[in-house]
Amino acid sequence: MSLELLLSRLERFPTVGLCDLPTPLRPLKNLSQHLGGPMIWEKREDVTGQGMGGNKLRKLDRVLHRAVQDGADTLVSGGVVQSNSQRQVAAAAAILGLDCHLAVYHGRVTPPTAQYNTSGNALLNHLYGATLHPKTWTGDRNGPVQALAQELLAEGKRPFVVPYGVSDALGAVGYSSAIAEIAAQSAQNGFTPTSVVHCTGSGATQAGLAMGAQSALPDCKIVGIDIDAEPERVKGDVIEYAIGGAALLGIPFDASQIEVIAGHAGPAYGIPNDATIHALQIAGRFEALTLDPVYSAKGMAGLIALIRTGHWKNDDNVIFLNTGGTPSLFAYADALSILPFSRS
Ligand SMILES: Cc1ncc(COP(=O)(O)O)c(C=O)c1O
């Protein structure tokens, strides 16, 4: 298997043109020097396209081709109040000229600030024209979305369900294009990445990276940092979507290589701890790298912890995949200004 084969298999899955690709790969020299570890690079998945970007757009680009083919007139999805996934579904619907209905889960995250329910992604959902349906969080991620789709169908709509986090086998296929870009961009820069580190939750981002890497970058480890405080559930979902995605693409996949690291999710999903805030601060201070307190800063906290335990050699090249999520930063503003800046 090779990069060329992965690219040729990906061509069998058309996009709807949501993304501006490739996203940049930039060296984080100041942060690498500050941490005294390997060379760190940022893959900028925060700028995948319109609607303030993020990792979900890359999945949606291929998943929504099915919606268009099916003649859908409405996208239906679900997530917590500050879900980046929902915001990107709402953005995609606006771009494709579709209606958007979102099941918004209250109760999974206790609002940490007064701005939580109205700022950041919640505000953008309104601006992008989505209709919001408040639901009580029960732990069932997709049930209320399916029920909402049935209601819309009964009203005469043609709904297309986008799964929680845009995570399923086709979402994983969509995300594997990121590793194809990383393979090409790292080769242009004269290195082979030792690892790609990123935060992982609903699973299809890691699934796409892992199955794609086994074909296009076999010497690169994909390291998922759990942000859901459910590492076993996350690992199981990653494996399920990677098996399904690899079958769609017709490429091999070895589940024994899936690595999900626990211990950086903070006290709970959606709640930052001191390490999360420290990661936000030093990424901003040394690189103007704007992380978010729910996802990417927890991923960065995991990366920092691994560097501090000597996980890599100084001449290794490690890519931090910045999955986006910046809008939620503003919904957490009051919770983030409490700690003074600390370099160590
Ligand atoms: C900013 C951000 N990063 C990472 C993730 C995790 O990606 P996945 O759900 O595919 O594991 C999400 C998912 O919501 C996200 O919004």
Shape: globular
The CATH architecture of the largest domain comes to 3-Layer(aba) Sandwich
Count of alpha/pi helices: 13
Q: Helix proportion of residues, in percent?
A: 40-55%
Distance between the termini: 43 Å
Overall structural domain count: 2
Largest β-sheet summary: 6 strands, mixed
Please give the CATH class of the largest domain.
Alpha Beta
The ordered H/E elements are HEHEHEHEHEHEHEHEHEHHEHH
Bound compounds, each kind once, are:
pyridoxal-5'-phosphate
Strand order of the largest sheet: 1-2-10-7-8-9
- In CATH terms, what is the fold-level topology of the largest domain? Rossmann fold
Strand pairing plus helix content: what structural class?
alpha/beta
**How many E-type strands?**
10
Low-confidence stretches: none
Our estimate of the beta-strand percent is: 15-25%
Radius of gyration: 19 Å
Mean pLDDT: 97
Detailed description of the structure:
The modification N6-(pyridoxal phosphate)lysine is found at residue 56. Belongs to the ACC deaminase/D-cysteine desulfhydrase family. GO terms for molecular function: D-cysteine desulfhydrase activity; L-cysteate sulfo-lyase activity. Its EC number is 4.4.1.25. Helix 2 crosses helix 10, helix 3 (55-69) crosses helix 4 (84-96) and helix 3 crosses helix 7 (169-188). It contains 13 helices and 10 strands. It has 2 domains: 3-53 and 168-336, Rossmann fold (3-Layer(aba) Sandwich); 55-166, Rossmann fold. The radius of gyration is 19 Å and the shape is globular. It starts with a helix and ends in an 8-residue tail after the last helix. The protein has helices spanning 3-10, 29-35, 55-69, 84-96, 120-127, 143-154, 169-188, 204-216, 231-249, 274-287, 296-308, 326-331, 333-336; strands at residues 25-27, 39-44, 74-80, 99-106, 131-136, 159-161, 195-200, 221-226, 259-261, 317-322. The protein is α/β, with parallel strands linked by helices and 344 residues long. The chain has a 6-stranded mixed beta sheet with strand order 1-2-10-7-8-9, with helices on both faces. Helix content is 44%, strand content 16%. Bound molecules: pyridoxal-5'-phosphate. Pyridoxal-5'-phosphate binds at residues 54-55, 84-85, 165, 167, 199-206, 295-296, 323-325.
